[in-house]
């Protein structure tokens, strides 16, 4: 497949890019600035997310959004989602979103989100709340093929690539050792598995270390 990855040089974006290249997909990194040290096999499209057009992404089978808003500009999560929904109207291109864990529910009645709990770090509440609002906007979008993948509570940049994970829907998952965590490497595997064999179209799902 031809896969465009917004934020391909970011933390999560790099893992998804490398996993897609490992699986021999044609990958285009959509970045504001092309790095001096480029990734072998990766083609770059140097463009700001807000300047992307329907024509730019028309020949992608999949567009992965791994955008992360800068500090004090967390409202851009909703703005970027609105822009992407706009350019993907009635397109065949699927949108896969790197989501947050903060919007996952911590109770069986699906009433309390993780970021609404007392022990959620205050520094991350604005990001989590805005990512949750972006997800709500996406859920209500019409004529867009989308999937939203939330990680576990602890998203480990240096975690092992095991190739194993368990899948949930709207609730925060806890692994067999009592931890809610997933490595970025295993998250990327889950993302590419969903790209290759879609099982959560028009849905949010989550993954946790098995």
UniProtKB/TrEMBL annotation:
Pfam families hit by this protein: NAD_binding_10 (PF13460)
InterPro entries: NAD(P)-bd_dom, NAD(P)-bd_dom_sf, Polyketide_Oxido-like
Name the UniProt record assigns to this protein: NAD(P)-dependent oxidoreductase
Organism: Lapidilactobacillus achengensis
NAD(P)-binding domain: residues covered: 7-194
